[in-house]
Write a structure and sequence with these properties.
Number of helices: 8
Order of helices and strands: HHHHHHHH
Helix content: 40-55%
Strand content: under 5%
């Protein structure tokens, strides 16, 4: 019995320490403060998700059925851009880059923006299935010309969200 009790104390101490340490790595708090990495194609979520109000899951269709949201294939993008062009010459140059990837049969090598540590399992589909808006974790992407990580995605941040929304708090929910 004492051994089990000591184990629980160690586990609690570990979790408190992990929450404190994970909160120290916080990223910018607002989309206005954040700047994302330079991508091979200057893709604007502000135009696609904002101006044209294309739902996140149209392009990131795997989010509702997979652990990963995934990035859209060139084929998905070309579904629209075979016929859609931009009146802005600078934006049209980016569409032409996309068409070159299509012609060459190569995927766009996007720079990853949102990442959790390898020892964490984050199933997008569970979050989508309970009705959590993508913006909860990814910020107001519909207002971002360049997407950046605005939430820290730390253990403490996730636990706070789970606590507020009465989500599971068992370690094995994310660590297995």
């Amino acid at each position: 019995m004492r051994r089990r009790h000591a184990w629980l104390g160690f586990t609690e101490a570990f979790l408190v320490t992990a929450v404190i340490l994970s909160s120290l790595g916080a990223r910018p708090a607002t989309a206005a403060d954040a700047e994302g990495p330079r991508q091979p194609i200057l893709f604007s979520h502000k135009i696609h998700a904002g101006d044209f109000q294309i739902d996140c899951q149209y392009c990131h269709a795997d989010a509702r059925r997979s652990v990963f949201a995934g990035v859209p294939s060139v084929r998905r993008c070309m579904g629209c851009h075979q016929i859609v062009a931009s009146k802005d010459p600078e934006l049209q140059k980016e569409v032409e880059k996309l068409r070159a990837y299509w012609k060459d049969g190569k995927p766009v090598e996007w720079v990853r923006i949102h990442k959790v540590p390898g020892f964490v399992q984050f199933p997008h589909k569970r979050h989508v299935q309970v009705g959590l808006a993508c913006q909860t974790c990814h910020g107001p992407v519909q207002a971002m010309s360049t997407v950046a990580q605005v939430a820290p995605l730390t253990m403490g941040w996730c636990i706070s969200c789970h606590s507020e929304r009465q989500g599971p708090l068992d370690c094995v929910t994310c660590h297995h």
